[in-house]
Amino acid sequence: MRIALRLLPGLWLALLVAAPLALVAVMALSWQAEGVPPYSPPWGGEGINPENLRLILEDPHYRDSLAQSLVTATLTAGLCLLLAAPMGIAIARAGRWRDALLAAVLLPFWTGFLIRLGAWIGLLRDEGWINGLLRALGLVEAPVPLLYTEGAMLLGMVHAYLPFAVLPVFAAATRLDPALEQAAADLGATPGRAFLGITLPQLFPAMAAAFLLVLIPAAGEYVIPELLGPPEATLVGRVVFQEFFGNRDWPVASALALALLALLILPILLFQRLGREG
Amino acid sequence: MTGDGAGAVTPPRLSLRGVTRRFDSVAALDGVTLDVAPGEFLALLGGSGSGKSTLLRVVAGFERPDSGTVMLDGADLLGVPPHRRPVNMMFQSYALFPHMTVAANIAYGLKREGRPRAEIASRVAEAVSMLRLEGLESRRPHALSGGQRQRVALARALVKRPRLLLLDEPLGALDANLRERTGFELRAIQRESGAAFVMVTHDQAEALALADRVAVMDRGRLVQVAPPREVYDRPATRFVAEFLGAANVITGTRTADGALESPGAACTLRPAAPLPLGVEAVALRPERVRIGPAIGENTAAGRVEDAAFRGESTLLLVRLAGGATLRVLHAEEDGAPPPPGAELRVSWDAASVVPLRA
Amino acid sequence: MMPGPVRAALWAGIAFLWLPVVLLVAYAFSASPVPFRWGGFSLRWFAALAANERLLEAAWLSLRVAAGAATLAVLLGGATGWVLARHGPFAGRALLGALAGAPLVLPEVVTGLSLLLLFVALESAIGWPAGRGALTVLLAHATLGSAYVAVIVQSRLASRERDLEEAALDLGATPAAAFATVTLPLMAPSLAAGWLLAFTLSLDDVVLASFTSGPAGTTLPVALFSMLRLGMTPEVNALATLLLAAAGLTLAAVGLLLRRRG
Q1: Do β-strands B26-36 and A39-40 pair in parallel, antiparallel, or remain unpaired?
Q2: Is residue B317 pLDDT above 50, yes or no?
Q3: Could you tell me the sign of the dihedral formed by the alpha carbons of C48, C52, C58, C64, in that order?
C-alpha cells in the first residue's frame, strides 16, 4: 500500500505537470497547419521547426512583449513591496489586533479577483466614481481618461497581488526576536536606527521572497492588462492568447510560453531557494 | 552467553548481543551487549550522540540494527514489527495525541488490542488513579501542565502492562522542583508495576538516583554498566569520571611500582593496589580530599583560588603547585573553610585514588 | 516600537484594498443603471441577477467544478504532501518535490496552455477526454489546487515530528490504524484549509478555464470576464456583494469552528 500511495502522486504529477510541459516544448518545435488540431508535429514528416523560437528572439513584436511584461511585473512587484513591507511589519507588531488586521488584508482576496477588477472599472471609467468626484469638486471639466491606461493596469495589478506580498513579510516579522531591537536600544541605538540597522536587514530574505512571489505570476498576467490596460499594452500573456486563440498558431504561442518560462527560471529558482531557507 | 549450562536460570527480560547500527558509516551503536533483568530499572546514561536514544529505538522497533540480536524473555524481537512488540515506550516529547482526550489517549493502546469496552474502562480508571489523573480524563493534552502530560504519557504506556517499558528522558521536560518528586513517583510506579524499565537520560544525577544499574554510553559503546554507587565511586574510565562530572581527573605517568606521578599536581598519587599497566589517569572525589598537613605521597600543596558556598558544604578550587586545579569539598561541620588566597596542604587516602582506563 | 510611516503605510494599504470593495457593495443597492452612481436604494440588481440565466448556469457549473476540483486536489495533494513529509529519502524524491511545487510558480498562461496541449494529445492518442468542458477544467483546477494542498499538508506534517505516529505503533496500532487514527486527524485542518483554498482558486480562475474549457464549459469567472470586457454593470455589484457575504460567512463559520475546537 505504501508503494501504491507513493506512486499515485508521482503518476498524477508526471501526467498533469511533467508531460504537459514537455508537450509545450514539442509544440514550440512543431509546424502550424490547417486542421484540427492546427499543427503538425516534428515527427509529421517536416522535421523539427526552429522558426518559432527564432521568431520569438528576432521579431520585435514578441521581444517587446517579453520586455514589457518584465518591466510591468518588476514595477508591480516593487510597488507591492513598498506597501507590503511596512504593512507586514505593522501587522506583526499590532499585538491583539494582529489577527483582525491580517484578516482585513486577506479578506478582499475572497471577494474574487474579477469582481475587484470590475470595481476598478466602475471607479475609473469616464462616468465612474472618481471622475464624478473630481467633477463634483470642480477640479476638472471634462472626464480624465483613467481606464484603459498603463496606470490603471498597474493599479489593478498592485491591488490584486498586494496580499501575496504582505504574507511573507508578515510571517518573517512575527518570527523576529523582539529582544534584538531592545538590545540595540540598550546599546544606545535610537528606535529609528534600531529599526533600520537591526530589524530591516533580517527581513530582507522575506522581502525578496515577497518581490518574487509577485513578479513571477505578474509576468504572465493576462486578465488584468486585458480588462484595465490600453490595447498597446501587449504583455506576453495577451500575446499568447492572441496567437493561440486569435491566430490559431499553437507553435508560436508555445514558443512564447517557453521564452517566458526561460526568463522566469532564475526568479523561480531563487524563490524556491528563499522558501527552503525561510 | 549468560546462564549457559544452567537450565533453571530464567532468561533476562531484555538481552542485547553485539547490536550495531551505522548511519552513513558513523556507528551510532557499536557492538552493544547488555542484559536487563525482570523488574530491573536500568538507566542508559550518555551525552547527545552517544547512541542511547538509538538503542531505545532499536528495542522499540523504530530502528533496525545492522547486526546483532535483540531478545525479549528469550524470544527474538527483531523480526517483530513495533506494533506487535510487548514493549512500550514513553517518548521524550510525550507524543500525546493532541486530538484526543486524556482518557482516549490512555485507552488508545487497549483499543488497538481489541479489548472489551468494560475492561478498557476499568483499566483506564486504574491507570488514572495510579498516576493521580482523576478529574483530567476529558481534558486535551494542550490543557494540561507539563507534569500532568508526563503522567498521561506514563499511564498510556503502562496501561498496556508491558513487560518492558522504555523511557526517553522521562523527566527532561519538567522543571527542577517537579523532577525530584516525579523521580520518586517513577520509582514507586516501577516497583508497583513490576515491569522492567529502561530509561535514557543525559542527567547523571537522575540516573544515579533512580536506577538499579547505570549503563554509561559513549560514541555507541557501553563503557561501564554497574550499580549507581559503583559508577560514582569507581568510574571505570576517564570518560565516565568526566561525564559524571564531580570527580577530579588527574593525569600523569605510571611509575614502575604502580603509582601515578603527576606533574600538574606536583605529587605522586598511590592507590591501594598498584595501577594496572597503561593507566595514566586517576579519579579523586572532591569529598575525599582532606585539608590538613600530611607528608609523603598522596598529599599536595596548593592555594585556594576561589570558593563556592553550597549550603551543607563549600567547594574550594585549589591551585596545586604543579598548576593543576583540584576541587575540594569542605564540609560545614568541619568549621570555617580556608579563605581564598590561603596556602594549604591537602591529602587523601590510598583507597580514594581510582584508576581510570583511557 | 513602530515608526509612524510604517503605521501610515498599513492604513493606506488597507484603505486601498478595501476602497473598491466597500464602494462595490454600497452601490449594489443603488437603483441607477450606471454602476457607481447613486440612484436611490433598490434591490433591482439582485433581482436582475436572479433572472440572468446564463450567469446562474455558469455559477452552478463553477460551484460543481470547484467542489470537484477541490476534493480531487485534497486527495492527490494530501497524498503528495504526506509522501514528501513522511517517506524518508527515496529515489526521485527531489523530482517529486519539484513537480509538486511547479504549478505554484508557473505562470498561469504556461500551465493553461500546457494542460490544453495534454488534453488534445490525449484525445488524439486514446480518445479521452472527448472534447473539452467541465471535466477538463476540473482536472486543470485540481492540478493547481493539489500543488497548494501538497505544500500546506507537507509543512503541517513536517512541523510535527514522527513521534505521534511512532507512539501509535508502539501502543499496538497497525501502520494502517496509525494512519487512520493519528496521521489523518493531524492532517485534517490542513486538508480542510487546502480544500477551501483550492475551491477559491477554482472559483477565481479565468486563464486555466479559458484554455481547457470548450464552449460547453463556461464557468462563472469566464462568463464574468466576457461581461467585464464590455464594461461594468450593476449586476456585477450585486454578484460581488453576494460573494463577499458568502466568503464572510464561511470565514466566520471556520473561525467559530476553530475556536470551539480550541
Answers
A1: unpaired
A2: yes
A3: positive
Q: Is A134 on the interface with C (CB under 8 A)?
A: no
Nearest by CB: C170 against B82, B93, B143: B82
- Asked if residue A34 is part of any domain, the answer here is no
B138: contact with C, CB 8 A cutoff: no
pLDDT of residue B179 exceeding 80, the answer is: yes
- Give the Å distances, CA to CA, from A130 to A139, C18, C20: 11, 15, 11
Domains of chain C and any CATH numbers: 1-42+234-262 (no CATH), 53-231 (1.10.3720.10)
**In this predicted complex, what is the ipTM?**
0.91
Q: Is residue A18 part of a domain?
A: no
Question: What is the reported pTM?
Answer: 0.85
Q: Kindly report the CATH number assigned to the domain that includes residue A220.
A: 1.10.3720.10
Find the CB nearest A122 among C36, C87, C204.
C36
Chains touching chain C, criterion 3+ CB pairs below 8 Å: A, B
Q: Looking at the domain assignment, is residue A202 inside a domain?
A: yes
Q: What is the pLDDT of residues C81-119, one digit of tens each?
A: 999 988 777 777 888 888 998 999 899 999 999 999 999
> Is B165 in a helix, a strand, or coil?
strand
- The CA distance from B256 to B303, in Å, is 30
Residues of C in contact with A127 (CB under 8 A): 34, 37
Count other Cβ atoms within 10 Å, centred on residue C60: 11
Distance of CA B242 to the CA centre of its chain: 14
3-state SS assignment for residue B311? coil
Are B97 and C174 within 8 A, CB to CB? no
Q: State the total domains in chain A.
A: 1
Pairing type for strands B299-309 and B267-269 reads unpaired
Q: Which of A27, A166, A237 sits opposite C109 (nearest CB)?
A: A237
Cell of B21: 547500527
Residue A27 has pLDDT above 90, yes or no: yes
Contact exists between B and A (3 or more beta carbon pairs < 8 Å): no
Sign of torsion over alpha carbons B68, B73, B75, B80 = negative
Most C CBs within 10 Å: which of B90, B97, B120, as the mutation test of the C interface? B97
Whether the CB of C186 is below 8 Å from some CB of chain B: the reply is yes
Phi and psi dihedrals of C133, rounded to 5? -175, -145
Q: Which residues of chain C have a CB within 8 Å of the CB of A240?
A: 109, 113
Query: Does C37 sit within 8 Å of A105, measured CB to CB?
Result: no
Report how far residue C256's alpha carbon sits from residue A222's, in angstroms, rounded to the nearest whole number: 37
Mean pLDDT of B28-40: 95
Q: 3-class SS at B35?
A: strand
Tell me if C232 and A241 make a contact (CB, 8 A cut-off): no
Please, are residues B357 and B251 in contact by the beta-carbon 8 Å criterion? no
Distance CA B278, CA B255 (A): 10
C-alpha cell at C108: 498561469
The answer to whether the CB atoms of A23 and C118 lie below 8 A apart is yes
Residue with cell 530582507: A204
Burial class (CB in 10 A: 0-12, 13-18, 19+), B193: middle
- Evaluate whether residue A102 is within a structural domain: yes
| Residue among C163, C172, C178 minimizing CB distance to B91 | C163
What domains appear along chain B, each with residue ranges and CATH number?
14-233 (3.40.50.300), 252-356 (2.40.50.140)
Contacts of A132 in chain C (CB under 8 A): 36-37
Alpha carbon distance B210, B204 (integer Å): 10
CA distance A58 to chain C (A): 21
A contact residues 192-251, partner C, Cβ 8 Å cutoff: 192, 195, 216-217, 219-223, 226-227, 236-237, 240-241, 244-245, 250
What is the strand order of the sheet B41-45 is part of? Answer: B87-90, B164-168, B196-201, B41-45, B213-218, B221-226
Domain of residue A236: give its range. 62-277
Residue with cell 498516576: B131
